Amino acid sequence: MGCHYNEVNLTYRLQPMTKKSRGQIEADFTTAIIKFEKEYLGRGPLEARTFFIQDMILVRLQGILTPAELKLAKTREGQALVKETRRQLFETSRDLLAELVRLTVGCQLISLHTDMSTKTGERVVVLTVDEDLNKKFG
């Protein structure tokens, strides 16, 4: 079963970016990340939150592990396998994430950084972009 995420419509009824508050744009980005996680990685987080910090988008995802991953993560080798698999899946989706940033925030993705905890089931994602979001959204 192949995943063809690039065929999925990322816009999911986004409103035009004009006149939206910073909080609304952060919420839109959170919604888009949850949709991405569900459609590309097969499972969405139980909780998610996005923060704009200067030229960075910080995303905190909680409850991301599947029951099988939780079981596998009980050993050191399993933890490493889960983390590496998730990291590779996320990094291979860079082009999709760049499009998501462009559509929701209106700027270009520069770099992508992510790490996760197999103990807490939490992932933190830092996306750097080509604009100061504090200046752009106040």
- The total of helices stands at 5
Radius of gyration: 15 Å
Q: What shape does the CA trace take?
A: elongated
Question: What level of helicity do the residues show?
Answer: 40-55%
Q: Strand count, sense and closure of the main sheet?
A: 4 strands, antiparallel
Mean pLDDT, to the nearest integer, reads 87
Output the strand order for the largest sheet. Answer: 1-2-4-3
The SSE string, one letter per element, is: HEEHHHEEH
**N-to-C span:** 44 Å
- Roughly what fraction of the amino acids lie in strands? 15-25%
Tally of strands: 4
Supply the helix-strand structural class.
alpha+beta
Poorly predicted segments: 1-15
In a few lines, what is going on in this structure?
This protein has five helices and four strands; from the N terminus they run αββαααββα. By secondary structure, the chain is an alpha+beta fold. The chain starts with 21 loop residues before the first helix and ends with a helix.
Please give a structural write-up.
With 138 residues, the protein is α+β, with helices and mostly antiparallel strands. The protein contains five helices and four strands; from the N terminus they run H-E-E-H-H-H-E-E-H. Helices cover 43% and strands 22% of the residues. Helix 1 runs antiparallel to helix 4. Strand 1 (47-53) and strand 2 form a beta hairpin. The protein has a four-stranded antiparallel beta sheet with strand order 1-2-4-3, with helices on one face. The radius of gyration is 15 Å and the shape is elongated. Residues 1-15 have low confidence and may be disordered.
